[in-house]
């Protein structure tokens, strides 16, 4: 773990995000901060003068990111190298930050991964590990830090779900189910915690160029490759929605259309379509 000191130059942030400065001076915890969306979340928030806690398994890329953000924006950055899929990891992370007197104002629950393949062909140990990270750790972190936010009557929580949360997905059965849980949890907590001054927003990205396919053991189909979004606008849409106090945001117009279309089609048709699109 390391801490980067303050003093440096500021940088410009993305259009639509730079005018919203209500996060300035706060502390944000970003899980899954060593790559993909986590890196983009970190840069966008640091550009708004948000101090950061980066949490993931791989320390080296986070140390490099912390150094870059310090030099670019002059914010405080803490690096917490931790395997959030391990039992009790959320409590250990919370205890570590409490010991440093770091109160988290913004929680970005971004850590997670998927597994591609038929359910019975995937070792159950891998599925359980995925569920531990995608559901259990996310739930524990939301509870631990959300409780503090509610006590202070101020806070923001972003949960990263997926476009796959809106329907069952053969070949991603367990992963899509974890994201359906995240979506349902986030929407419910949006209503539960708002009276306590805490905003909960759920971001649902579609296929994004983050290395997800390689980690899941999948090859993107031609359709997915056409629909792939870059991570920067996806992350920006999540932060923008959080600042606006929205319950849910689906990143990208084509993904919004896909999510809405599920209201109009039978679930059997949804499964067949997703098998063709995601099953490669």
From TrEMBL:
Q: Which residue windows are coiled coil? A: none
* Record field: transmembrane: 156-175
Q: Which GO terms describe its cellular component?
A: membrane
GO MF term list? oxidoreductase activity
Record's keyword terms, sorted:
Membrane, Oxidoreductase, Transmembrane, Transmembrane helix
The organism's place on the tree of life at top rank: Bacteria
Q: List, alphabetically, the InterPro entries matched.
A: NAD(P)-bd_dom_sf, Sc_DH/Rdtase_CS, SDR_fam
Q: Which PANTHER family match?
A: DEHYDROGENASE/REDUCTASE SDR FAMILY MEMBER 7B, SHORT-CHAIN DEHYDROGENASE-RELATED
Homology family: Belongs to the short-chain dehydrogenases/reductases (SDR) family.
Q: What is this protein called?
A: Short-chain dehydrogenase
Organism of origin: Microvirga vignae
Its taxonomic path starts at: Bacteria, Pseudomonadati, Pseudomonadota, Alphaproteobacteria, Hyphomicrobiales
């Amino acid at each position: 773990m390391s801490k980067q000191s303050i003093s440096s130059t500021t940088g410009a942030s993305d259009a639509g995000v730079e005018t919203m400065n209500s996060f300035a001076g706060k502390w944000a915890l970003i899980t899954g901060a060593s790559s993909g969306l986590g890196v983009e979340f970190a840069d966008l928030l640091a550009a708004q003068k948000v101090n950061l806690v980066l949490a993931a398994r791989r320390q080296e890329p986070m140390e490099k990111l912390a150094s870059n953000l310090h030099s670019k924006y002059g914010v405080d950055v803490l690096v917490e190298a931790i395997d959030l899929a391990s039992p009790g990891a959320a409590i250990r992370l919370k205890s570590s930050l409490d010991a440093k007197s770091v109160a988290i104002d913004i929680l970005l629950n971004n850590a997670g991964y998927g597994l591609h393949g038929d359910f019975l062909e995937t070792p159950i140990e891998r599925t359980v590990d995925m569920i531990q990270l995608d559901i259990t750790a996310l739930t524990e972190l939301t509870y631990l830090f959300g409780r503090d936010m509610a006590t202070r009557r101020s806070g923001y929580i972003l949960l990263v779900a997926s476009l796959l949360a809106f329907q069952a997905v053969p070949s991603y059965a367990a992963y899509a189910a974890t994201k359906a849980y995240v979506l349902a949890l986030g929407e419910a907590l949006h209503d539960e915690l708002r009276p306590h001054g805490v905003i909960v927003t759920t971001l649902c990205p579609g296929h994004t160029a983050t290395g997800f396919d390689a980690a899941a053991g999948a090859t993107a189909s031609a359709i997915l490759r056409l629909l792939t979004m870059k991570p920067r606008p996806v992350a920006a849409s999540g932060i923008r929605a959080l600042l606006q106090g929205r319950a849910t945001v689906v990143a990208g117009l084509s993904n919004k259309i896909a999510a809405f279309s599920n209201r109009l089609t039978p679930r059997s048709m949804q499964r067949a379509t997703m098998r063709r699109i995601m099953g490669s």
